Amino acid sequence: MKVTYFVKDGCDACKKARHKVGFYLDRWGLADEIEAESFNVSNVDGLAESAWREIADIPCVILEEDGAEVARWTKNPPTSAELMTVLGLGEGRPDAPAPELAETTA
Q1: Which of 36, 77, 92, 101 is most exposed, with minimal Cβ within 10 Å?
Q2: Secondary structure (DSSP) of 17-77
Q3: Full set of structural domains in the chain with CATH
């Protein structure tokens, strides 16, 4: 699994999106299991990648598995419940917090 962020210099929402997703992954013990990549659309390489991936707005958070996109959030990062669903976490995994608990701590 891989998480890719599309961000821009000086974008507070971008910083918050990265922090929020990183917080959840760390809290759930997945930070070391999920690769993270970031593209800054303020530079040519980031802009080219965003055009190729059809990024309409920032921040944008994309989750991929085996090179295929499984989820995308644009402008707003995922809620803990959304992220848990995509990652297959929840009632079946004892170390996963209840979504309402995770939301209040982020």
Answers
A1: 92
A2: HHHHHHHHHHHTT-TTTSEEEEEETTSHHHHHHHHHTT--SSSEEEEEETTEEEEEEESSP
A3: 2-105 (3.40.30.10)
